[in-house]
Amino acid sequence: MFKARAEGADCMITCGGIQSNHARAAAVLCRRVGWHPVLILGGTDPGAGYQGNLLLDKLLDAEIRWVDDHDLFHNSGALIAETAEAMRKKGYTPYVMPMGGTDTVGLNGYIAAGLEIREQEKQMHTSFDAVFCAVGTGGTLGGLILFKELIDWKVRLYGVNVMLDAKYFRERIDSLVRDYIAEHRLTLPHHTDLIQMVDGFVGPGYAKTTPEGVELIKRIARLEGIFLDPVYTGKAFQGMIKMIEDGGFAQKSNILFLHTGGIFGLFAQAEDLFPGVKPSK
Fold first, then answer.
1. Model pLDDT for residues 71-97, shown as the tens digit of each residue
2. In order of start, what are the domains of the chain with their CATH numbers?
3. Average pLDDT, the chain
4. Which residues contact 61 (CB under 8 A, 6 or more apart)?
5. What whole-number distance in Å separates Cα of residue 235 and Cα of residue 216?
6. Which residue, among 45, 40, 17, has the nearest Cα to 86 in the 3D structure?
7. Nearest CA to 70 among 266, 206, 166?
8. Neighbouring-strand partners of residue 135
9. 262, 231 in Cβ contact below 8 A?
10. Residues noted as catalytic
11. In sequence order, what are the beta bridge partners of 40?
């Protein structure tokens, strides 16, 4: 935000999937500071029946540009650059934010989150053996890894990829961390083996779930009153449970699951959660 204001921005451009939590949060931020939000979303305009984050995007009157999913995930940088140029021609001064807010600036958010976790450990007189999170663009895990390296935090960090594969995210996160270290001129040893990915829970693809994923979401809601979503946290929780069941941790290990939101997107998945049940009018 400081950087965007320093550049005199009056418009923010970012991108994500049709139910992107990040895109919705960016649009909210824009409206709170009086900027024009522009969202590049993967998919096609449903035309009616807006649900979840997309409904909120529409309530915020965000300018939405629809693109093919494949183009979004493989050419997001070029799409954002093209949109920024178009907005400049309209008289705006755009600030561009990458998908998921994941760049060397965005990593600071989860470095700060790591600090908050450490402070809570002290307040609770405990320590965590492991932390699990969902990985959709790599910023969450990347920031936590940087924090771990900065203070030599004695915890194991695991990311569960919700799309693509573990190899892709190991390379992406490694590049992000190295860029951050170089940009800030840190004399910090970076160990690639700290990037521990848990693969195998993508299911049919991004924002698509499985019957096992649906049952887990229902079970956690009934047992704990905690809502997971099929896009991010549901897959990450599934990966964590499987690793525990497979004996990946000693008994009485203290494991933290980092819930990164997604409840609004849950409303768009009603048909997957309860097939055949039509919403009441």
1. 998 899 999 999 999 999 999 999 999
2. 2-101 (3.40.50.1100), 107-270 (3.40.50.1100)
3. 94
4. none
5. 9
6. 40
7. 206
8. 161
9. yes
10. 20
11. 15, 65
At 109-162, the pLDDT tens digits run 999 999 999 999 999 999 999 999 999 999 999 999 999 999 999 999 999 999
**pLDDT tops 60 at residue 279:** no
Place of tokens 């807006």: 50
Q: Is the pLDDT of residue 209 over 70?
A: yes
Whether the predicted pLDDT of 5 surpasses 80: yes
Does residue 281 surpass a pLDDT of 80? no
Q: Smallest Cα–Cα separation from 212: which of 203, 224, 222?
A: 203
3-state DSSP of the chain? CHHHHHCCCCEEEEEECCCCHHHHHHHHHHHHHCCEEEEEEECCCCCCCCCHHHHHHHHCCCEEEEECHHHHHHHHHHHHHHHHHHHHHCCCCEEECCHHHCCCCCHHHHHHHHHHHHHHHHHHCCCCCEEEEEECCCHHHHHHHHHHHHHCCCCEEEEEECCCCHHHHHHHHHHHHHHHHHHCCCCCCCCHHHCEEECCCCCCECCECCHHHHHHHHHHHHHHCCCCCCCCHHHHHHHHHHHHHCCCCCCCCCEEECCCCCHHHHHHHHHHHCCCCCCCC
- The amino acid at residue 183 is E
Q: What are the two backbone dihedrals, phi and then psi, of residue 155, each rounded to the nearest 5 degrees?
A: -145, 150
Q: Which residue has the tokens 């809502």?
A: 227
